[in-house]
Amino acid sequence: MTVVVKNKQPLVVPTAARRLAGFKSGQELEVKASGGVITIVRRLSPDEQQDERDIRDPKIRMAIRKSHEEFLAGKTRPAEQLLAELKLTKSKNQARASKK
Questions:
Q1: Taking each helix axis from N to C terminus, what angle separates 58-72 and 46-56, rounded to the nearest 10 degrees?
Q2: For each of the chain's 100 residues, which pLDDT tens digit applies?
Q3: Which of 13, 35, 73, 74 has its CA 20 to 30 A from that of 27?
Q4: What are phi and psi of 57, to 5 degrees?
């Protein structure tokens, strides 16, 4: 698709391109420009931004990888057991924090 840039006119993204990108009316977008290239992406919610940061953390990536390997090997545990383990970890972390 080709558009023509005109003086004092907004740059318009063609409807077909917006449709292909999945952009909806009223949706917030981020526009980035560098080296003659303009990139338009959907703006992430705060939760999605946190997920993006978390996924880059090596410890979290390792935990996800290990969990996935256990799942593929058929090593699963009941939800009640997982919740009990999480509650125990949380209480240990709180105890450590109160000692500081």
A1: 80
A2: 888 888 888 888 899 999 999 998 899 999 999 999 999 999 988 898 898 888 888 988 898 899 899 889 988 888 888 888 888 888 877 777 777 6
A3: 35
A4: -75, 120
**Cβ(38)–Cβ(32) below 8 Å:** yes
* Structure token digits, residue 2: 């080709």
Strand ranges (E), 1-100: 29-34, 37-42
Determine the Cα–Cα distance for residues 43 and 30; give it in Å rounded to an integer: 5
Torsion sign (Cα): 63, 65, 67, 69 = negative
Quick check: helix, strand or coil at residue 68? helix
